[in-house]
Amino acid sequence: MSSALGIKKVGVVNTKAGNLFSLFACLRRIGFEPITVNTTQDLELNELCALVIPGQGRFGQVMKQLKATKLDQAIQMWSQQGKPLLGICVGLQVMFEQSDEDPGVEGLALFEGKVTRLQSPKQPMVGWCQLDSQEARFKNQIVYFVNSYGVKSSPVAVATVTYGEEFVAAINQGNLWAFQFHPEKSGPIGEEMIKQCLR
Amino acid sequence: MSTLNQQVGLIPRVIVCLDVANGRVVKGVNFKGLADMGDPVELALRYQEQGADEIVFLDIKATLENRANALETVTRVAQNLSIPFTVGGGLNNYDDVAQFLNAGADKVALNSAAVKNPSLINQIADGFGSQCVVVAIDVNKDEVDDYAVYVNGGHVKTETNAFDWFAEVEQRGAGEILLTAMHRDGTGIGFDNELMARVAKERNIQVIASGGASNAEHFVDTYQAGSDAALAAGMFHRGEYCVDDVKQALKKQNILTR
């Protein structure tokens, strides 16, 4: 699944909730061609090797956009087919069932559980924090977080972080990946993590 | 030995500031007199490689005529940076902020515009989220030992009470305060840690210390006083210290660094 030039295309879901500049620039730096996915046709017509749900905006706003474009069902289908999918920040959160940020709005429910408001000492949490993990690729790595909401715990968590309280930092189940932090803003370590998820 | 920052889990940030005028990085002394320090893109990348945790780009001679040029420079920096990137200077309204965020900034720093029109903070926080709103506040300690808020690049004293203003920007949705002690800027005697400690303790948002640093120990001192992050320009631009020197000084005090 690569273009004529051999550069793999990665779809970035347009959630219309913020700018995608940093993510696009990061994907280009690590050798992918980012493609904006506005519609289900964009998913079907492009030979995408992976899909990213970016980390801008709030839960309700992102889900509203995904439902309006029917990309919610397309993403669920994509994940059922076992294709690589990466959610970042709110992109992680919408992969769960619901969120206290917008009660009553259904998430993609790729993972069981609920997003809650974090008891951060300073709100919003903005900054670098060290990961706790059994996996070498995450263990003690320092990455950049920007959030007020998160998931307290999950059976599919592969890394956690503590700021006031412990919460989920990274998730992996098959080809499904999700990071509460922003790998595209986490220096060379973050770029390496994205590469590994999307390859 | 542990610091407040370690207990709450966030790692103190070392931020390098690029004061940009007419497309070049410059450095002033006490907000007066400018010397050329180099190309913004080159310098931003150099500091990222040295281990900077964030880059702040302040267009200190922002004019409408120069806007297109500033946006283009911001984009060139942003394309190459894999760390957070904050842009300020000449942001007067919502559309200005949107332009710079679309050009690649992760956060914007509002200064004079926020003092003149405080509801701008609410508008940006509502539109783009608190995490991208940094309110830059320039304070000067005057004869009666009180802190006054200055605007227009430190040229105009306002009637605003500094401590009321810190509280108000938080309440209006700012994500961080970039606090410059003008009376320390360019002096090299260190950050105003008495001020930083008080604001960091009283406010529930992060405080970036600015103004007065000339060596690595000054960073250690301000983090130990409670600052969440600290920013310097000249000591890095002049090549006296690289960012890693600061990180090494922090490590010696068992302060976790990236």
UniProtKB/TrEMBL annotation, chain A:
<comment type="subunit">
    <text>Heterodimer of HisH and HisF.</text>
</comment>
<dbReference type="Pfam" id="PF00117">
    <property type="entry name" value="GATase"/>
</dbReference>
<dbReference type="InterPro" id="IPR029062">
    <property type="entry name" value="Class_I_gatase-like"/>
</dbReference>
<keyword id="KW-0456">Lyase</keyword>
<protein>
    <submittedName>
        <fullName>Imidazole glycerol phosphate synthase subunit HisH</fullName>
    </submittedName>
</protein>
<dbReference type="InterPro" id="IPR010139">
    <property type="entry name" value="Imidazole-glycPsynth_HisH"/>
</dbReference>
<keyword id="KW-0315">Glutamine amidotransferase</keyword>
<comment type="pathway">
    <text>Amino-acid biosynthesis; L-histidine biosynthesis; L-histidine from 5-phospho-alpha-D-ribose 1-diphosphate: step 5/9.</text>
</comment>
<feature type="domain" description="Glutamine amidotransferase">
    <location>
        <begin position="17"/>
        <end position="197"/>
    </location>
</feature>
<keyword id="KW-0028">Amino-acid biosynthesis</keyword>
<keyword id="KW-0368">Histidine biosynthesis</keyword>
<dbReference type="InterPro" id="IPR017926">
    <property type="entry name" value="GATASE"/>
</dbReference>
<keyword id="KW-0378">Hydrolase</keyword>
From TrEMBL, chain B:
<dbReference type="Pfam" id="PF00977">
    <property type="entry name" value="His_biosynth"/>
</dbReference>
<comment type="similarity">
    <text>Belongs to the HisA/HisF family.</text>
</comment>
<keyword id="KW-0963">Cytoplasm</keyword>
<keyword id="KW-0368">Histidine biosynthesis</keyword>
<keyword id="KW-0028">Amino-acid biosynthesis</keyword>
<dbReference type="InterPro" id="IPR011060">
    <property type="entry name" value="RibuloseP-bd_barrel"/>
</dbReference>
<dbReference type="InterPro" id="IPR006062">
    <property type="entry name" value="His_biosynth"/>
</dbReference>
<feature type="active site">
    <location>
        <position position="138"/>
    </location>
</feature>
<dbReference type="InterPro" id="IPR050064">
    <property type="entry name" value="IGPS_HisA/HisF"/>
</dbReference>
<comment type="pathway">
    <text>Amino-acid biosynthesis; L-histidine biosynthesis; L-histidine from 5-phospho-alpha-D-ribose 1-diphosphate: step 5/9.</text>
</comment>
<feature type="active site">
    <location>
        <position position="19"/>
    </location>
</feature>
<comment type="function">
    <text>IGPS catalyzes the conversion of PRFAR and glutamine to IGP, AICAR and glutamate. The HisF subunit catalyzes the cyclization activity that produces IGP and AICAR from PRFAR using the ammonia provided by the HisH subunit.</text>
</comment>
<protein>
    <recommendedName>
        <fullName>Imidazole glycerol phosphate synthase subunit HisF</fullName>
        <ecNumber>4.3.2.10</ecNumber>
    </recommendedName>
</protein>
<keyword id="KW-0456">Lyase</keyword>
<dbReference type="InterPro" id="IPR004651">
    <property type="entry name" value="HisF"/>
</dbReference>
<comment type="subunit">
    <text>Heterodimer of HisH and HisF.</text>
</comment>
<dbReference type="InterPro" id="IPR013785">
    <property type="entry name" value="Aldolase_TIM"/>
</dbReference>
